[in-house]
Amino acid sequence: MATTALEVASAVRAGERSARAVVEEHLAVIGEREAEVHAFNLVMADEARERADAVDAAVAAGSDPGPLAGVPVALKDNMCTRGVPTTCSSRILAQWRPPYDATTVERLTAAGAVIIGKTNLDEFAMGSSTENSAFGPTKNPHDTSRVPGGSSGGSAAAVAAGFAPLALGSDTGGSVRQPAALCGVVGVKPTYGAVSRYGLLAFASSLDQIGPFAHTVADAATLYEAIAGHDPRDSTSIPEPAAPVSSWLDDGVDGMRVGVISELSGGGIEGIASDVQARVRVAADALAAAGATVEETSVPSVIYGLTAYYLIAPAEASSNLARYDGVRYGLRVDGPNTEAMNVATRTAGFGDEVKRRIMLGTYALSAGYYDAYYGKAQRVRTLIIDDFAAAYEKYDVLLSPTSPTTAFELGAKVADPMTMYVNDVCTIPSNLAGHPAISVPYGVGDDGLPVGVQVLAPLMGDVTMFRVAAALERSLP
After folding, report:
1. Cα distance from N-terminal residue to C-terminal residue, the chain
2. Is 413 part of the annotated catalytic residue set?
3. Choosing a second label site near 352 at 20 to 30 A (CA), which of 132, 271, 414, 475?
């Protein structure tokens, strides 16, 4: 059984393997461990077989199905798939079937991929552990007593468990990179606007971005190339074509300048574990040995990213989630009048974390508090962008931990939202700035669980980011 997506696609395109056989192999693995891991809200077995047969027919007819021919892909359950339940792991959308496909789904199909299922997530992508799902938590395949991270924990777990070579998640404050780190896979947040958000159910529209999970940087780069590029249906989509990031993966880092962010490596923010810091130092030394100039540097305002994010994101969520009112689609709980029906529907349909963020966001936007909270948070966001710009005048990329710790135990942080929120402290700044960042698995911590090292790059610096990530990957024993 081929171990990478590129190997699968190459074998299917050459007629050496059938897409149907590839799908059956992965469905067998899902059958063995899915009950234990719970990566999926829905396994699309019949649809995957039908799609695989279509790929095989195209190969038999002499056509090239595309760069992801026959590769199973797991899809976070907040991306619209026509006629297939798209729940956001929320009771309020439990029975909703979209009448259209997200742009990313269309592009996966055009690239020859086979969607094998919809993955579990923290409800409406609000969480860092995939414990906030209405359908139960996902578990970390490396240790099922631990969380896989969140909110895209189902997608990360699906790749880590071998259920699919590739997956897509969404990253609003680290929701691709943090679970990638905890599950020991590659996770990418592209430049904001590089991948269309059309068909992604919105959490915080100025922060949301779809990104790949994979076992290798090369696989992640190929998936990125398949889904990236301009989409006129997304008003925030970058108008230029996506850069061919795969072409630069072997170019190395000789002569490049790398800055290790001191505030995120134990010098400014508490709670970053010593074993995680140690892996970042090893990664920095590896890049230096490969020819890069590596120095410690300061990006002072990143220490305020967490507080700014937890005003901006809930404010946008408060607006975006107002559409779930029991009138147009989704759950409806009857009441004596429209207002009562609306309240009853949202009370029954939303979980505690979603309600908490809606209330926080509504408060931050309310008269008398807008300037004090939301307005000030946006000014901090600008400060972060300016501090990153200053750092990128000196460095090509920046380095930091992805997650402050390795995977923590299920239930350990659910009672304390603030402790849970701190899990995104290293990833949030890139979302606030709109910059690309990638988590590369880089060994294990003292507990034997995976550690991720994060490579951050400036706006539109996705090529450089992938190039450095590939060099990091090669430096591992």
Report:
1. 23
2. no
3. 271
CA distance 431 to 191: 9
Is residue 144 exposed (0-12), middle (13-18) or buried (19+ Cβ within 10 Å)? middle
* Cα–Cα distance measured from residue 51 to residue 72, given in angstroms and rounded to the nearest whole number: 10
DSSP code string of 62-116? T----TTTT-EEEEETTB-BTTB---TT-GGGTT---SS--HHHHHHHHTT-EEE
- What pTM was computed for the model? 0.97
Q: How far apart are CA 244 and CA 217, in angstroms?
A: 14
* Cβ atoms 213, 152 nearer than 8 A: yes
Supply the pLDDT for residue 2: 52
Number of CB atoms found within 10 A of residue 218's CB: 21
Instruction: Give Cα separations from 14 to 58, 66, 87, 210 (angstroms).
Output: 12, 11, 37, 30
How far apart are the C-alpha atoms of 362 and 101, rounded to whole Å? 30
pLDDT digits (tens, 9 = 90+) for 145-166: 999 999 999 999 999 999 999 9
> Any residues with CB less than 8 A from the CB of 396 and at least 6 apart, and which?
256, 257, 258, 457, 461, 464, 468
Per the prediction, the chain carries an average pLDDT of 96
Chain segment 415-446, per-residue pLDDT in tens: 988 899 999 999 999 999 999 999 999 999 99
Higher pLDDT, 329 or 60: 60
Catalytic residue among 89, 90, 129, 151: 151
Structure tokens at 383: 């400060």
Backbone φ and ψ for 94, nearest 5 degrees, come out as: -55, -30
- Annotated catalytic residue, options 18, 76, 139, 400: 76
Domain boundaries, the chain: 5-238
Q: What is the pLDDT of residues 45-55, one digit of tens each?
A: 999 999 999 99
Which amino acid is residue 74, in one-letter code? A
| pLDDT tens-digit series, residues 52-65 | 999 999 999 999 99
pLDDT tens digits for range 388-397? 999 999 999 9
The model's confidence at residue 268, banded by pLDDT at 50, 70 and 90, is confident
d(CA 166, CA 60): 24
Is the pLDDT reported for residue 271 higher than 90?
no
- The encoded tokens of residue 111 equal 């690239």
Q: Which of 188, 254, 256 is nearest to 220 (CA)?
A: 188
151 is catalytic: yes
How many other CB atoms are there within 10 angstroms of residue 353's CB atom?
19
pLDDT, residue 270, reads 82
Largest separation between any pair of C-alpha atoms in the chain = 71
Among 175, 196, 301, 430, the active-site one is: 175
The string of DSSP codes covering 204-220 is -TTT--EEEEESSHHHH
- Could you please state the CATH topology (level 3) that the domain comprising 5-238 is classified under: Amidase signature (AS) enzymes (3.90.1300)
